[in-house]
User: What shape does this take?
Amino acid sequence: MALPFEFTGHPAQLLRVGPGFSLAAQPCHAAPGFAGKKAAGAAALAARAPLLAQLQEQLFAESRFGGKRSLLLILQAMDTAGKGGIVSHVVGLVDPQGVQLTSFKAPSEEEKAHDFLWRVRPAAPRPGMLGVFDRSHYEDVLIHRVHGWADGPELDRRYEAINAFEAELAEAGTTIVKIMLNISPEEQLERLTSRLHDPTKYWKYSPTDLDERAFWPAYMESYQRVFDKTSTGHAPWYVVPADKKWYARLAVQEILIHALESLKLQWPSGDFDLARERLRLSKA
Amino acid sequence: MALPFEFTGHPAQLLRVGPGFSLAAQPCHAAPGFAGKKAAGAAALAARAPLLAQLQEQLFAESRFGGKRSLLLILQAMDTAGKGGIVSHVVGLVDPQGVQLTSFKAPSEEEKAHDFLWRVRPAAPRPGMLGVFDRSHYEDVLIHRVHGWADGPELDRRYEAINAFEAELAEAGTTIVKIMLNISPEEQLERLTSRLHDPTKYWKYSPTDLDERAFWPAYMESYQRVFDKTSTGHAPWYVVPADKKWYARLAVQEILIHALESLKLQWPSGDFDLARERLRLSKA
Assistant: This one.
């Protein structure tokens, strides 16, 4: 867990949701485990990116020789918290060939006609892949609880179904990392306002963002419930302070590096006779 | 078509396959249209990347408001020519959320039981997306001609089917850019050798690479035939010298920028009442 630069602690330890976790007690503007400012954070992000890229390539390479392991990053957050920025600035630094990204929108009529996990299962990462869920099956407990679209017993059934589903994935070789980007309502207001004053960002704004904002406390209760019910040993949640975008990106990158390092990845030796192939090549 | 830096001509013009094109007459080691060396090429690639990223974002944004347009980059080449490098170093510089990458491997039994375009059609890019085919339906004419797996009439049928398929895509709003990375056999030998002397690259080597290498002249004939039959106004081929990786990346980036600029993309204005939303926000 040794980390270079201005790190003073590991985000994978400091931000992990454990027993007794209280979302309300978490700061949104802090940078736990990092003593530097924005510039130092950006430098650390860039400096550590090649390691993340190498680990991802090793995971991918392993799958070419029968390896079944994969990584799944689940991103959840209030609007504007920076999920997209994580995808472009952290996931975007690894080879796109090893990334399997799924953005879950409001379900279609066909999707609604099935169980809520129906559309999620086929999106699970293939062997060797870094899967990313931009939103996920957690919408079906988060927003459904906020708006009362599912009652208590149904929500309980879903938490259990989610735990069972994620246990299956883990059993099949998928390392699961669940991230909640924790933005403050004040910071969200600033970001929404900036979207409405920059013509290159109008397209990212939707009036419903503001509608949902009115339910902020209910969403926080919903998240707390999700953490209580679904932060498991095989699929832990991490709550990442997100008011500083640079910190959130850095923290998520380190959490991913940590998850991949735990797999003890190696470069495959290939399934051919090295000496023989070198000889063939020398005569080619 | 104005280009900064050491450009002396536009790759989209210089490398485009037109009437009378001869693959055998094309240099592999040259850098057409660029007067600089490797360092200048890398600098130009980095300097132009934000423009490509912005154009891609505009294409994506347009689709959120009903836009149907998309871009499809088709990559074909001999082994080691650098398709993967184009994906990671050119496509990898745009937001992964706007990229839809499909790597076509040897077809499965199920795929073989269908027409060769059966597996390709569903991989066409969705509106707003930058689709990338790493190999493609062209394998079904290239390699099949080399190994005699399809006879002359069948190959002719496939060229026609490909042209009809690509015309359909173009009609539906997809701009198609077809790239052949043109590596020399000497350079391939060097790259294969380096893969066999670097344990982090063993996994990329396959003995079949060397088997196929023996058919080099037949492959070049197959490519020539493909260019003769399928370089159309709506889906042109570009043959990119690929012995210098830095040049190939730079050239493909400029060809993509050129294709996207031809779409005259604009930032969407959004589908809401700007003044009203600003007022709502100010009270939020």
Notes: The radius of gyration of chain B is 20 Å. The interface with chain A takes residues 61, 64-65, 84, 87-88, 91-92, 95-97, 99, 101, 103, 134, 189, 192-193, 196-197, 199-200, 202-207, 210, 213, 267-270, 272, 274, 277-278, 280-281, 284 of chain B (CB under 8 Å).
